[in-house]
Amino acid sequence: MPVTSDHSAASESLLLALLALFLLASPFAVWWMRQAPPWHFIYLIWLGLIVLVAALGRRLGRYDL
What we know:
Layout: H1 9-24, H2 27-34, H3 41-60
Helix pairs in contact: 1-3
């Protein structure tokens, strides 16, 4: 019996977009920028998002996105 997943490409992409929105354009982002993080902190966030997008793209395949 094959195992099927309820997760579609659209739902996973939407969750990733909401995570990016939360980290970069929400009151949470204003709060952590007031904490005076190191200069490279925002670049680490962007790098993490890029890695997540690449992993999602690799897992879903070429035509699922």
